[in-house]
Amino acid sequence: MFPLTPVAAEVIPDETQASGASFGRSWKFDFEAGEFVLTPTGKIAGAAADAEAWLEWCRKALATERYRHLVYSRLYGHEFESLIGLGLSRAAVESEIARIASETLLADPRTARVGGFVFSWQGEACSFVCSVTSVRDEAGTIEGSVVSL
Predict the structure, then answer these.
(1) Per the structure, how many domains does the chain have?
(2) Residue partners of 86: CB distance under 8 A and separation at least 6
(3) Do the domain assignments include residue 138?
(4) Which of 48, 59, 121, 137 could make an S-S bridge to 53, C-beta 3.0–4.6 Å?
(5) Which residues of 49-88 are buried (b: 16+ CB within 10 A; e: fewer)?
């Protein structure tokens, strides 16, 4: 029943162990509508996995103000509201947006790099786009906006 000679098992490296981060799953969220993606019957449409789940986390973190909701840890979310009323120049606001967004996204161990910020202004509102790269070298683009009265 058992082989007489031992068979060497092939060891496949676990990506979670190599990177130290578990990518997991997340429910898909429609950020424009502000609700989970639903089927026509009203059930949650499905889960995002791996890199897609990580990008969902990044988008949600940049849409959530830090310290506002008790359900989140103190490390989750942004602090863009701290820019309101400071009277900073546009260049200074852009620099602070890049810093705050980077700190927000790098709080997750799945995020390796944040950069490539592009800013556009409409009155006192500043929209931005940045690129994020995971520890698995998977990249995505994240959008956000800040009003700096």
Answers:
(1) 1
(2) 148
(3) yes
(4) 48
(5) ebebbbbbbbbebbeeebeeeeeeeeebbbebeebeeeee
Residue type, 52: E
In this predicted model, what pLDDT tens digit does every residue of 96-148 receive, in sequence order? 899 989 998 998 888 999 999 999 999 888 899 999 999 989 899 999 888 76
Beta-carbon count within 10 A of 48 CB: 19
- The amino acid sitting at 3 is P
Does 103 map to a domain?
yes
Domain-embedded: residue 108: yes
Q: Which residue has the tokens 């900073």?
A: 88
Q: Domain range for residue 85? A: 21-147
CB burial of residue 134 (10 Å; 0-12, 13-18, 19+): buried
- Closest listed residue to residue 97, CA positions, set 114, 74, 73: 114
pLDDT in tens, 14-66: 444 444 566 666 666 666 666 666 777 777 777 666 777 788 888 888 887 87
